[in-house]
Amino acid sequence: MNSLNNSSDTPSPFHQGEQEIQQRLGVRDKMERFGRQVIRDHMPEQHRQFYAQLPFIFAGYTDQQGWPWASILFNQPGFISTADNKHLLINTLPVSGDPLSESLATGSRLGLLGIELETRRRNRLSTHITHTSEQGIELAVDQAFGNCPQYIQQRELHSIDPASMPPVNIEELSQFDSQAIELISNSDTFFVASYAATHSAATSEGADVSHRGGKPGFIRVDDKQTLTIPDYLGNFHFNTLGNFAENAKAGLLFIDFEQGHLLTLTGTVEILWDSPETQFFAGAERLWKFHIAKGRWLKNVLPLRWQLQDYSPNTELTGSWKEAEAAKKATQLKNTWQAYQVSKIVEESSLIKSFYLQTPAGQKPQFKPGQFLTLKANIANKEQIRTYTVSSAPADTWLRISIKHERGNNELAAGIFSSFMHQQISVGDIIHAKAPTGSFTFNTSAKHPAVLIAAGIGITPMMAMARHTLQEAVRTRSIQAMTLICSARNSDQRAFFAELNQIAENSAGHIRVLWALSQAESHLKSGVDYHHSGRISRQWLANILPSDNDYDVYLCGPNSFMQSQYNSLRELGVSDAHIFAEAFGPASLIRDKKPSIQPPIANEAIVTFSESHIEQAWSKADGNLLEFAEAHGLTPEYGCRSGQCGACKAKLLKGKIAYQQTIETVLDKNEILLCFAVPAADTENKITRLEIQL
């Protein structure tokens, strides 16, 4: 074999800067093993054929002052030829005004990117110039490797007659002019050149040029000299960032795909590893800034035009700075009521309807799969508040909640809020809600498999988790194995059946969906319409779950179902720490672990509600602090009243509290759950005092 670095005693295919970034992000060992297999010192035959058919290629290099630039070279297909797998000839020269014209010299490093926008295929080369002439450039290959099609927008190429083009116009820039700002702000594609700063002969060093893609608006123009750009999940080579670590300079190339103009820039860069803005930009792993040093407009130089056909599936999962600002605003308004408009209603089963909600003012709430919305409505002249799990995934372009209609019977009254939603809400209506929250969330970073077990309406958080897992597979090119076990009475009450089947099919076998029907109809086909007749039993779980118990389990459903499944899982050897649960209703899951030690409960206390200026005496007979507040005319927000949803969180300003039973909700410092909290005895003072911000 002629591949580069086939043994451990050969130099690494990555230079020091690339290695530092890989080490920082925890992929160093993996990429060293991988790089030695895929980064070659020659062009594979398929790469030679690929370059030979291209009508253009991108180049990255540095000028005589050490500034990186990116350029495009073009001619008729076939203008790139390879006499062998180590050398290539580019039969063309740079366009008029291109800085590359001033930088061609024997021995200079040139990074090349061959890219076919129609097919979203691309390959990279690291080369050095061996000869230049009036006909073109001869190069020797230092490194060659392929790239995946992530973030490449599909475009159709058209050529025009160069004679029909207006005269070439070259303009020097020291800051972004209005045309540059417009082009950059609306771009979905650009190319970035970088250069390792050292002057060694190592093949891992030298120039590089890379493609960057995103939604229009993914590059922010901060001012006339600065851009902020997200860095998405890529191939983990970190060629660009690694070069930045060695040499904090970059060249950017923007193409006006409709007019044939080029905007080429060079300047300095800084990587923003821990910017708080990153969390609001969908798909961003980190950010980097570009500060212009100089640039050029090369107008009317390209006899090529591209027509946008489609955005990359990976691009669709990313954001824009407008969306990031909206997400930031949504986070700031997380604890305020906002107006959501119902855009669609879908009947998922005989009992469950899904409500698709249009977020206010274009905001896209940030949430984790498994979290819930808190809704408020005036029903029969009384304000009602409930929580409903979001059944869409964070990357979905819509927000969906799915609600079971509690119809009631001779013993139980019909659900007030669910009846209102099912019977009175129509498309176009406004619902007031708070942004998603909740502590029952899916561990997206887990490497081991996940098992989701749901009954009835408990399927809603599992829908969000399954959708999210599939979407992350597109973004990250790896997928977490998942088994989703659903329980329903019969096919009429089997919600999301078709959608889950589609998720399983699209996952290529990585996501399994199994149904248990307790009263399966006779016309249903076992193994197709359902997989188990009866309730989910411990024996059935033992037959279908991995034997090594190395998986996380997520449970959601009625409390008796939850407790039964929890007990079965524990008997099968699944540790309590790997079982995550969300019950609904007044009871909660009883775990076989020691409860947290609570301070003694006070017999009496003076409780002050600071914002309402109410001070009242509390005793044990008054119950929890939610009930106590309501008894004194206050209307705190609440949802489940069982310590699960967190809707009744309040800030404790003074004193201490105890909980009447274990809670699962994650609380910030000084936050308490009113529905389970009672005053704790003050052992240092005669009178126990409590002050709550309410």
Notes on the structure:
This protein is an alpha+beta fold and 694 residues long. It folds into four domains: 16-322, Pnp Oxidase, Chain A (Roll), CATH 2.30.110.10; 336-437, Elongation Factor Tu (Ef-tu), domain 3, CATH 2.40.30; 450-583, Nucleotide-binding domain of ferredoxin-NADP reductase (FNR) module (Rossmann fold); 604-693, Ubiquitin-like (UB roll). It contains 13 helices and 36 strands. The strands form seven sheets. Strands 9, 10, 11, 12, 13, 14, 15 and 16 form an eight-stranded antiparallel beta sheet that branches. A seven-stranded antiparallel beta sheet has the order 2-1-5-6-7-4-3, with helices on one face. Strands 21-20-23-18-19-22 form a six-stranded antiparallel beta sheet, covered by helices on one side. α10 links the parallel β25 and β26 (511-517). α1 crosses α5 (239-246). The longest helix has 18 residues, at 459-476. Residues 1-7 have low confidence and may be disordered.
Number of H- or I-type helical stretches: 13
CATH architecture label of the largest domain = Roll
| Total count of domains | 4
The N- and C-terminal alpha carbons lie at a distance of 73 Å
What global shape is seen? elongated
CA radius of gyration: 31 Å
Average pLDDT = 91
What portion of residues belong to β-strands? 35-45%
Q: Biggest sheet: strands, sense, closure? A: 8 strands, antiparallel
Write down the CATH class of the largest domain: Mainly Beta
Report the strand count: 36
Poorly predicted runs of 5 or more residues: 1-7
Pairing-aware structural class of the strands and helices?
A: alpha+beta
| CATH T-level topology of the largest domain | Pnp Oxidase, Chain A
Helix content: 10-25%
